[in-house]
């Protein structure tokens, strides 16, 4: 009997039929799923979700060849446009404020985009769960393009800010939707390489964005920073409409009110203002207002109350929640979201400090500082490709999370040794180490969500990973800035014969204009020391990444190994049950 086979009897050459387990388990899963209203039963386990995804991979027909190449090119182009939109504005802002005479609005040009992108991320994940992936993704692209049109044609600063807010909403749907699409066009075993390729778009855009922004602003008009999205977006829409075909499991005929309730309106109405208040406090604190200002304190308090209420609503709503508790409590999802937050925090901390170090200490221009960060970006791309290719071959992604933590902490740790006279070989090498770590760890949380969750839940898991990554970046950009400014304010008074207020107002590129020549060397040493302290933030976060990595489940994305393991476990379980039955019979049998 198959049930009596010992685990050691299963040899490598034996053919293991997936149906041995999956046929039985599928009936159990269907019973759990069939609640009549499209809900997934809360007791769906990690293993069932993983098996469900693997069985779907075995049954699905995926695009290949030229069709797959076209779809992937279109998706990567969309991700690149959205990532570019975050960075291209950096070098265009001075000209925009001049044209609109709106220096007091400058903080909103970045904040409006960040707030709507971060605030609507989880909502998009919920929408992808209940509606066609293709149609929702196309809608997200259209929203992003509408925002770009408004920004490019904006007659006033207020109109420009509205355009940035709309574009931010679209970007949130594109971020999570691009990864959800991968789950429909590629089997799990082949995704890591493509996920790494898609993730590298973020790194490339961080260098290309400021360069393109400067080129458009100087040689044409800053409005082309946004018009450039239109022709590329149009081509992407055409390709996806013609070639992307994904199946969508219809829930059935339900009322409009029920559809609305499935999107968790109660949670959304509490979550959005909570995130907005929190991000506004981070954006304004230390810039527009002091951290001790009553307005900042009120924003933090209100955001705290609203976000606590959001958690309560999620517990109350269960399967109708934006993030069903069973998903949030899933081990790999929970620890993966923390790891994702650390990745975003470390990345933004370094991206904040490094350009300032180049511009202030090394005396480069804003454009040149972008060029000087190319080593980190190239290393990020290489790291993503190496880890993706290796995971495709071995199946295990968790080890790369540890490698990521080690390389990021080493690279950022070496950056704390920067001196005014640090040479090219040093700052290039340190960036390479940090960039490799980023590339090797950035995509692993979303890959974990795809592995442990059933297809229906994947969009929520991915949206949660992107949200925590964005939130971590938003929080620690403010933390890094505060550490830098505080140390600068404490150490500058030690330099005599300078005007501290003028130095702080001049910014990184204006030091030579406001500092006497004989005092410039001393001020640069102070600047360098303050930035070294800010780099410590990135070191701390990178070291802490080991903790969530340690909490991850060591699972494989390779179907054959999972199926084999499940068959062996089922055999052992049956054998144990039969042994227990025999023992019970022996105990109950009357003595002779």
UniProtKB/TrEMBL annotation:
Q: Plastid as a keyword? A: no
How does this protein lie in the membrane?
Multi-pass membrane protein
Q: Where is the Major facilitator superfamily (MFS) profile domain?
A: 71-519
**Which Gene3D superfamilies does the entry link to?**
MFS general substrate transporter like domains, Multidrug resistance protein D
Keyword check for Cell division: no
SUPFAM superfamilies with a match to the protein in the record: MFS general substrate transporter
Task: Give a single Pfam family match.
Answer: MFS_1
Q: Name one GO molecular function term.
A: transmembrane transporter activity
Q: Where found?
A: Membrane
Mark out the compositionally biased spans (Basic and acidic residues): 1-28, 38-50
Protein species of origin: Conoideocrella luteorostrata
Q: Which is a Gene Ontology cellular component entry for this protein?
A: plasma membrane
**Which PROSITE patterns did the record assign?**
MFS
Stated name of the protein:
Major facilitator superfamily (MFS) profile domain-containing protein
* Residue ranges of the TM segments: 68-94, 106-124, 136-155, 161-182, 194-214, 226-246, 266-284, 296-316, 337-358, 370-391, 398-418, 462-484, 534-555
Q: Where is this region: Disordered?
A: 1-58
Q: Which UniProt keywords apply?
A: Membrane, Transmembrane, Transmembrane helix, Transport
InterPro entries linked to this entry: MFS (IPR011701), MFS_dom (IPR020846), MFS_trans_sf (IPR036259)
């Amino acid at each position: 009997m198959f049930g009596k086979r010992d685990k050691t009897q299963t040899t490598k050459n034996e053919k293991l039929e997936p149906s041995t387990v999956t046929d039985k388990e599928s009936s159990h899963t269907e019973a759990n799923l069939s609640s009549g209203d499209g809900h997934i039963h809360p007791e769906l386990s990690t293993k069932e979700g993983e098996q469900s995804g693997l069985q779907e991979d075995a049954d699905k027909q995926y695009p290949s060849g030229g069709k797959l190449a076209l779809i992937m090119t279109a998706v990567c182009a969309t991700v690149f446009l959205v990532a570019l939109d975050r960075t291209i504005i950096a070098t265009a802002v001075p000209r925009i404020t001049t044209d609109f005479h709106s220096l007091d609005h400058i903080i909103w040009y970045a904040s409006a985009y960040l707030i709507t992108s971060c605030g609507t991320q989880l909502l998009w994940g919920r929408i992808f769960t209940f509606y066609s992936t293709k149609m929702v993704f196309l809608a997200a692209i259209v929203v992003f393009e509408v925002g770009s049109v408004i920004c490019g044609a904006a007659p006033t600063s207020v109109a420009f800010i509205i355009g940035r807010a709309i574009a931010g909403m679209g970007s949130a749907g594109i971020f999570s939707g691009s990864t959800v699409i991968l789950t429909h066009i590629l089997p799990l075993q082949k995704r890591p390489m493509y996920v790494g390729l898609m993730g590298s778009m973020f790194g490339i855009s961080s260098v290309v964005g400021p360069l393109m922004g400067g080129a458009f602003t100087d040689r044409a008009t800053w409005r082309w920073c946004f018009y450039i999205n239109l022709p590329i977006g149009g081509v992407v829409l055409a390709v996806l409409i013609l070639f992307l075909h994904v199946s969508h499991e219809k829930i059935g005929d339900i009322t409009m009110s029920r559809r609305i309730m499935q999107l968790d309106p109660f949670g959304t109405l509490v979550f959005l203002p909570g995130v907005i208040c929190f991000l506004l406090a981070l954006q304004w604190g230390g810039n527009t207002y002091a951290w001790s200002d009553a307005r900042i304190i009120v924003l933090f308090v209100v955001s705290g109350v609203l976000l606590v209420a959001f958690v309560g609503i999620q517990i109350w709503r269960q399967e109708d929640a934006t993030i069903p508790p069973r998903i949030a409590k899933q081990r790999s999802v929970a620890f993966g979201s923390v790891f994702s937050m650390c990745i975003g925090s470390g990345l933004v901390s370094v991206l904040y400090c490094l350009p300032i170090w180049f511009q202030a200490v090394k005396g480069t221009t804003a454009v040149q500082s972008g060029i000087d960060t190319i080593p980190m970006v190239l290393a990020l791309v290489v790291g993503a490709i190496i880890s993706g290719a290796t995971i495709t071959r071995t199946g295990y992604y968790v080890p790369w999370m540890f490698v990521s933590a080690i390389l990021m902490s080493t690279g950022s740790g070496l950056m704390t040794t920067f001196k005014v006279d640090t040479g090219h070989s040093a700052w290039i090498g340190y960036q390479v180490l940090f960039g490799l770590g980023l590339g090797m760890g950035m995509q692993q949380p979303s890959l974990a969500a795809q592995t442990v969750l059933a297809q229906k839940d994947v969009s929520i898991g991915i949206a949660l990973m992107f949200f925590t990554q964005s939130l971590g970046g938003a929080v620690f950009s403010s933390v890094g800035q505060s550490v830098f400014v505080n140390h600068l304010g404490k150490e500058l008074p030690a330099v005599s014969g300078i005007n501290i207020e003028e130095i702080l107002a001049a910014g990184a590129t204006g030091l030579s204009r406001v500092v006497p020549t004989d005092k410039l060397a001393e001020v640069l040493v102070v600047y360098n020391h303050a930035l070294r302290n800010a780099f410590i933030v990135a070191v701390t976060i990178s070291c802490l990444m080991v903790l969530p990595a340690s909490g991850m489940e060591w699972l494989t994305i390779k179907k054959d190994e999972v199926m084999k393991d499940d068959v062996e476990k089922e055999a052992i379980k049956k054998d144990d049950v039969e042994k227990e039955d025999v023992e019970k019979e022996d105990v109950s049998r009357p003595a002779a």
